[in-house]
Amino acid sequence: MNWSYFSSPSTFYRLAGWLSPWFFALAAILTAVGLYYGFVVAPTDAQQGEVYRVIFIHVPAAWMSMFIYFVMAAYSAASLTFNTRLGAMMARALAPTGALFTFVALWTGAFWGRPTWGTYWAWDARMTSELVLLFLYFGFIALANAFEDPRRGDRAAALLALIGLVNLPIIYFSVHWWNTLHQGSTVKLTGTSMHVAMLTGMLLMAFAFWMYSIGAALTRVRSIILERERRARWARSL
Amino acid sequence: MTTMALGSWPGGFAWAFSRDFRLAWRNPGETVLVVAFFVLVASLFPLGVGADMRLLERIGPGVIWVCALLAAFLSLPAMFSSDYMDGSLEQMALSSHPMVGWVSGKIAAHWIMTGLPLTVLSPLLALQYGLEPDTLLVLAAALAIGTPVLSLLGAACSALTLGARGGGMLLALLALPLFVPILIFGAGAAQAQASGLSPSPHLSLLAAGLIVAAMGLPAAVCLAIRIALD
C-alpha cells in the first residue's frame, strides 16, 4: 500500500470524511460504557467518597492533553522535514482539541480540589505545568493564524511546537522541584494500586477521548483543507 | 577583508555583534528605556504590597526576576524586526557568513544591551528590598547566567513572529511560558541562599540550561528566519 497516496489533501479529504463518523461512533460507545463503569460499577472510594469519580474525566483529559501535544509536535516535525502540507494541517487541526482537554483537566481538577484539598487552585507542580501547556497551545494557535500566508503560519507554528516539546519536560521538572502537592501517579507501567473497575472505567474513558480527538481532528482538517484548496478544481466540483 | 569574504562563524559573529552594538551605542534611548522600566516596575512593588521589610525581603528575589523577565521581553520585538522591515535581514542571509554566526552575534549584542545592565543594576534594587549581601551576590550571579537564556529563547520567539499580526501580544504569549524554568531556578537560587541553603544546585541547573540553549537555539532562530524570508 502506498501511504503517500493519502498525503494529498484531496484524497485525504475524502478519507477523513469517511473515517471521522466511525471514530465519533466509537467514542460515543466507549464513553457510554466508560461512564457506566465509572458511575455504577466502580465502588465508592474509602477516603474521598463519591468526589473521586471526577477522575473518569480528569485523568483521561490530562493524559490526552499531553499526548495530543506530542502528536501535534510529531506532525509538525514531519511537515518541516518533508515539507508536506497535510502534516501542518493535521497539527493545526489537533491544537484546539488539545487546548480543550487541557482546559477540561484544569477545570475538573479545580472542582475536585475544592472538596478534597479545600481550594480550587494550588500552585502545585502538575497544575502549573498543565497551565503552561495551555499557554503553549494558545501560542501555537495564535502564531498559526497570525500570518497572511497560511503556509508561513504552518511552518512558524511547527517550529514553535518543536521548541515547546523540548521545553515541556524542563518546565515539568522545574515546577516539580519548585512545589509538589499533587498526589503521585497511581497508574504505573509496573502495576497499579487501583481497584480494577476504577481502572477499567478510566482506561475506557481515555480510549473514548482518544477516539473523539481523532474524529474531531479529522473533521477539523476537512474544513482546513477546503479553506486552503477552495480554488482548486476538485474542491470547486464538490 | 579576505576572511570576511570567505565567510566564517567568528567573522559573522564579530560583524553582527559590532554592528548591533554600535547601533545601540549611538542610539542609547532603547537600552536606557529598558533599564528605566526595570527600575520603575521593581520600585512599584513595595508601593503595592506595603513597606513591611520582612515581606519585601522574602518576595525580593522573585519580584526582581519577574521585572528582569519583563524588561528583557520588552526589547525583543526590536531584535530582528527593523532589519526585517528594511530588508537588511535578507542581505545578511545572503552574505557568505554562515547564518548561525551572525545570528549568535545579534543575540550576544542583545544580551549586552539588556541582560547585562539589568544584572549590574540588580544589587541596587536588591538593596531596596533589604536583601542580605550574600543573597544579593547570588541574585546577581543567577541573573548573569539566566538572562542570556532569556535572550536566546526570546530571539527564537522574536524571529518566529516576524511579519505577524498583533506582534507584541503574540510575542508575550509565545515567550513568557518558555521563560518559566529560568524564572523558577533564578529566583530559587537567591531564595535558597536567603533561607540558609546552598544556591549551587539552582545555579548549576541555570548554567546547564544556558549550555543547552546556546547549543540548540541559534539553529532554531536560523530556521525561523529562513521561514520568515521564504
Task: Characterise this structure.
The complex is a heterodimer of chains A (238) and B (230). Chain A has 238 residues and is mainly α. Helices cover 76% and strands 2% of the residues of chain A. Chain A contains seven helices and two strands, in the order αααααββαα. A two-stranded antiparallel ribbon of chain A has the order 1-2. In chain A, β1 and β2 form a beta hairpin. The radius of gyration of chain A is 20 Å and the shape is globular. The model of chain A has no long low-confidence stretch (mean pLDDT 85). Chain B is built from twelve helices and no strands. Chain B has one domain (9-229). Chain B has 230 residues and is mainly α. Chain B has helices spanning 2-6, 9-26, 29-49, 53-74, 78-85, 88-94, 99-113, 115-128, 133-160, 167-178, 180-194, 200-229. The model of chain B has no long low-confidence stretch (mean pLDDT 87). The interface between A and B is medium-sized, with 26 and 27 residues.
How many structural domains does the protein architecture of chain B include?
1
Helix content of chain A: over 70%
Termini gap of chain B: 29 Å
Structural class call of chain B reads mainly alpha
- Strand % of chain A is under 5%
Oligomer: heterodimer
Number of domains of chain A: 1
Mean pLDDT of chain B: 87
Secondary-structure element string of chain B: HHHHHHHHHHHH
Overall SS class of chain A: mainly alpha
Mean pLDDT of chain A: 85
Count of helical segments of chain B?
12
Our count of helices of chain A gives 7
Give a short account of the largest sheet of chain B: none
Give the strand order, joined by hyphens, for the main sheet of chain A: 1-2
Element-by-element helix/strand order of chain A: HHHHHEEHH
* Biggest sheet features of chain A: 2 strands, antiparallel
pLDDT < 50 runs, ≥5 residues of chain A: none
